[in-house]
């Protein structure tokens, strides 16, 4: 039935607090399900946009009824208008023994009962009240459960906690990180180069300095002990170190990246709320305007009649957005605005304020770019970690370790990529096979790759470089490598050099990237 717009029933009072993350914009109409019955004017719980909201409506509502609400916020208080109320649905009787349904705990009821919302594909959830007095388990709102139907008449069910296996959990995490992961190690050079310009941002400067000073020198990793320490501090072993008592993680790359990201986020908030003061604007609008200012190309794509109208009033799109972010309001007609913005009426103080505001916008844009680079580096480390866990969890696949090791080469950040793979034995008496791939990018020789195979004391080495001059240099000095390997009591089976493109190893195979982005069910 339709609710008249002028009736008292059309007004809905929100009795409980509404989460600010409720995904409904003002004016939007959405369906909701009544999860607790109530008379007109009484408190009633509804499930709206995935949230449980307590309301008071001017009509009687029964559990399971579907209603339509329109969000009509006034100020900071959430408000709704009741648009329609569907007829009371029939009691759900199509349960089949053996059926398993996903449910969410909506509310704890008196007399040791819980209210569940059974999920239906393509339909609104169905409320179900269960007596759990004979169960020793505890429940809480928002908890996910699996409801298995044992019998339908009378209704008898069993409750289980849904458990995701390791592969499903890792796949979900990889899908979340994939948009940030690049095909090669992230370039943090912009973060390093910005260090002299961060003197006024002490927390960020300290975080960048700590990260940079704890990165090993490129020349130092020629010593086995220093190489081992650089690998241990590359970030992929951070969580294992945290499990130890009194962990020392000041030198860990991932730990320092996380500290730097927190410092950048704090500085961004301080800059946006200080130099760019837009207290009169909602947070969502302010964020959107700041993002738009950071994309000059987007401002050039405004419709021509809007751009012409702004220019006629003496304002560019960037100037208008800057004024809005500063909490200023353009007044007067186009002619008055043009007159007010003439050179004769612009005071020295206004020029200084505009310059300070523009500097704040520039700082904010730069900080956001740096934060994006740091987030990409963190995502890369986490993806490497997940790849190693995934491989270890599957005994059918060989164990693989993949690490991106940052190195310092004077004031330049270089990357050494190391992948270790443990092969499976052919039989119980056979020696273990190891395959090591090392990628390194140098200023003089470009990208290099060393592929090393080791079984017992037998070793094979294949060197690849992109620059023909580098290949020639390696071939001239390959005897030195053979001598050093022999000094380690290793029998050299093969040594070779090649000229070919060197591709950085990625923690996600190209064939599986589309699978992680798109799941198709028929």
Automatic annotation (TrEMBL):
Keywords: Cell projection, Cilium, Coiled coil, Flagellum
Residues of the Flagellar hook-length control protein-like C-terminal domain: 425-497
Coiled coil: 471-498
Gene3D superfamilies: 3.30.750.140
Keyword hit for Coiled coil: yes
Keyword Coiled coil: yes
Protein name per its UniProtKB record: Flagellar hook-length control protein FliK
Lineage: Bacteria, Pseudomonadati, Pseudomonadota, Gammaproteobacteria, Thiotrichales
């Amino acid at each position: 039935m339709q609710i008249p717009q002028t009736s008292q029933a059309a007004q809905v009072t929100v009795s409980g607090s509404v989460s600010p993350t409720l995904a409904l914009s003002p004016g939007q109409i959405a369906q909701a399900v009544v999860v607790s019955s109530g008379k007109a004017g009484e408190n009633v719980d509804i499930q709206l946009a995935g949230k449980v909201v307590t309301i008071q409506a001017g009509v009687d509502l029964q559990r399971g009824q579907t209603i339509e609400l329109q969000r009509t916020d006034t100020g900071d208080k959430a408000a709704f208008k009741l648009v329609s109320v569907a007829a009371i649905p029939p009691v759900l009787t199509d349960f089949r023994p053996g059926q398993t349904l996903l449910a969410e705990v909506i509310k704890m009821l008196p007399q040791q009962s819980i209210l569940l919302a059974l999920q239906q594909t393509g339909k609104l959830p169905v409320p179900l009240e269960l007596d759990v007095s004979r169960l020793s388990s505890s429940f809480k709102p928002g908890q996910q459960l699996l409801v298995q139907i044992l019998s339908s008449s009378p209704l008898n069910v069993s409750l289980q906690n849904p458990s995701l296996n390791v592969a499903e959990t890792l796949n979900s995490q990889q899908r979340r990180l994939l948009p940030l992961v690049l095909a090669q190690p992230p370039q943090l050079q912009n973060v390093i180069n910005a260090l002299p310009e961060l003197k006024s941002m002490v927390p960020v400067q300290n975080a960048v300095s700590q990260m940079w000073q704890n990165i090993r020198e490129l020349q130092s990793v020629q010593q086995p002990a220093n190489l081992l320490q650089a690998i241990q501090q590359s970030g992929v072993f951070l969580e294992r170190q945290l499990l130890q008592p009194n962990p020392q993680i000041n030198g860990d790359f991932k730990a320092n990246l996380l500290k730097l990201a927190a410092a950048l986020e704090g500085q961004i908030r301080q800059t946006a709320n200080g130099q760019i003061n837009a207290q009169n604007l909602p947070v969502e609008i302010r964020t959107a305007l700041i993002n738009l200012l950071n994309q000059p190309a987007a401002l050039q794509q405004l419709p021509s009649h809007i751009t012409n109208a702004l220019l006629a009033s003496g304002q560019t799109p960037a100037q208008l957005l800057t004024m809005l972010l500063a909490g200023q309001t353009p007044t007067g007609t186009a002619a008055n605005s043009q007159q007010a913005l003439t050179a004769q009426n612009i005071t020295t103080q206004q020029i200084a304020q505009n310059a300070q505001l523009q500097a704040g916008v520039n700082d904010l844009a730069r900080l956001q770019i740096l934060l994006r680079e740091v987030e990409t580096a963190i995502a890369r480390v986490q993806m490497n970690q997940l790849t190693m866990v995934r491989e270890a969890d599957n005994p059918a696949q060989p164990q693989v370790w993949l690490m991106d090791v940052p190195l310092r080469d004077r004031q330049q950040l270089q990357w050494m990529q190391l992948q270790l793979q443990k092969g499976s034995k052919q039989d119980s008496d056979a020696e273990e096979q190891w395959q090591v791939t090392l990628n390194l990018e140098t200023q003089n020789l470009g990208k290099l790759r060393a592929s090393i195979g080791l079984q017992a004391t037998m070793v094979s080495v294949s060197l690849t470089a992109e620059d023909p001059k580098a290949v020639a240099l390696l071939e001239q000095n390959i005897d030195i490598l053979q001598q050093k390997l022999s000094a380690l009591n290793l029998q050299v089976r093969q040594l070779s050099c090649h000229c070919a493109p060197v591709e950085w190893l990625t923690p996600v195979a190209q064939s599986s990237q589309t699978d992680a982005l798109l799941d198709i069910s028929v």
